[in-house]
Amino acid sequence: MTSVKEFRIETEATAEELGRGAFVFTDDYSVFDWGKMPDQIPRKGASLCTMGAFNFELLESEGVPTHYRGVVENGDVVALADASHPPWEMAIDLTQVPDLPHEGREYDYDSYHEAAGENYLIPLEIVFRNRVPVGSSLRRRTEPADHGLAFGSWPEEAVDLDEPIVEFSTKYEEGDRYLTREEADSIAGKAAIEDLESLAREVNRIVTEQADSAGLVHQDGKIECCYYRGELRVADVVGTFDENRFSYEGTQLSKEVLRQYHKRTQPDWVRAVNAAKAEAKQANVADWKSLCDEEPEPLSESVLETASDLYCAGANAYTGRELFDAPPLSSAIGAVQRL
Q1: What pTM does this model have?
Q2: Pick from 284, 114, 99, 271: nearest CA to 190
Q3: Which domains does the chain have, with CATH numbers?
Q4: Is the dihedral of CA 312, 316, 318, 321 positive or negative?
Q5: Taking a C-beta distance cutoff of 8 angstroms, is the pair 316, 323 a contact?
Q6: Nearest Cα residue to 167 out of 156, 152, 157, 181
Q7: How far is Cα 247 from Cα 253, in angstroms, rounded to an integer?
């Protein structure tokens, strides 16, 4: 289903009923939409599964419906607190994911929804932003006035927002594409765009408050949702260091660390990726990766160890539980700063 976690089906979803299955988290990682990179980050999968389970249980306690059922240990589905070790597998309810036909970059969402009925994964990502950092795509695509901000142009420094900005982007297209509200409403099908926005804001509030209690700053993130008989449920995984951006004492605590490291150490590959995406867009070709003439290089063992400690120490700090044998977060962050 994704480049960093596997998908197990126990019972198929139907037009009328949810199915059952599981996510199996791996130590793979992906940056710049490349897919599986040439090496793995030890314990990354367990840290993401742990944070995802923690957040789903937190959302459920606040009355937010989700597709989460528990974590899997020795074949049994249990709450995170009842697991004897950090889990790798998460049990979930399944919804339908119809095919999305396309010709080049033209996608047939009408066909998707004809097959979807009353039980489907909404083909959108709902993005929320609490901060607009330097280099954010939001600065290239919009002006401050578009969001009710009192700047004539974007300041040179990062902008902390009093009210989160919510945007919508495509989920199943070959390259992510930000949408107007009208486009997003059409792609959402029977799900109301206002309800999706409200749900995203509530998830953002809950994750932001949890991060704040752990001394972390929650900068931005996203949710995916399923529609089941008129109800919206939060799907995929929520509030991890891959889905969201956090910082600690001014240093990134997210997959952004790996993105920036590749920019510094493998600039030719990053430039080739950007060029391939631009060429594919101009040629109306969905598969940009086939146009890229560079491959990423593996990371050194020391970098992988630093990334592993970052994920595990961050998960310990965010959940408030010593689930992983990892250095204090301040030490893990110090190692990141020295990369």
Answers
A1: 0.92
A2: 114
A3: 5-337 (3.30.470.20)
A4: positive
A5: yes
A6: 181
A7: 5
Tell me the C-alpha distance between 156 and 177, whole Å.
25
For residues 67 and 233, the answer to whether their CB atoms sit within 8 Å is yes
The two three-digit tokens of residue 219, written as one number = 């900068």
Q: Considering only CA atoms, give the Rg of the chain.
A: 20
The two structure tokens encoding residue 290: 């086939």
Burial of 240 (0-12, 13-18, 19+ CB in 10 A): buried
- Of 89, 83, 44, 90, whose CA–CA distance to 67 is shortest? 90
| Phi, psi values for residue 222, rounded to 5° | -155, 165
**CA pair distance 142, 139, nearest whole angstrom:** 6
Give the separation between CA 137 and CA 274, rounded to whole angstroms: 14
pLDDT tens-place string over residues 152-192: 999 999 999 999 999 999 999 887 899 999 999 999 999 99
**So what's the pLDDT on residue 1?**
45
Q: Tell me how far apart the alpha carbons of residues 175 and 181 are, in angstroms, rounded to a whole number.
A: 19
> What token pair was written down for 6?
């596997």
What pLDDT does 4 receive? 81
With a cut of 70, which residues of the chain have pLDDT below it?
1-3
Measuring CA to CA, how many Å separate 98 from each of 190, 206, 240, 307? 15, 31, 26, 36
Number of residues assigned to the chain: 339
Residues 119/98, Cβ–Cβ less than 8 Å: no
Nearest alpha-carbon partner for 56 in 189, 210, 179, 174? 210
User: φ and ψ at 247, to 5 degrees?
Assistant: -140, 160
74-102 per-position pLDDT tens digit? 999 999 999 999 999 999 999 999 999 99
* Count of C-beta atoms within a 10 Å radius of residue 98: 16
Task: Give the pair of three-digit tokens for residue 18.
Answer: 């949810």
Which among 188, 193, 243 has a CA at the least distance from the CA of 219?
243
Q: How far apart are CA 100 and CA 78, in angstroms?
A: 34
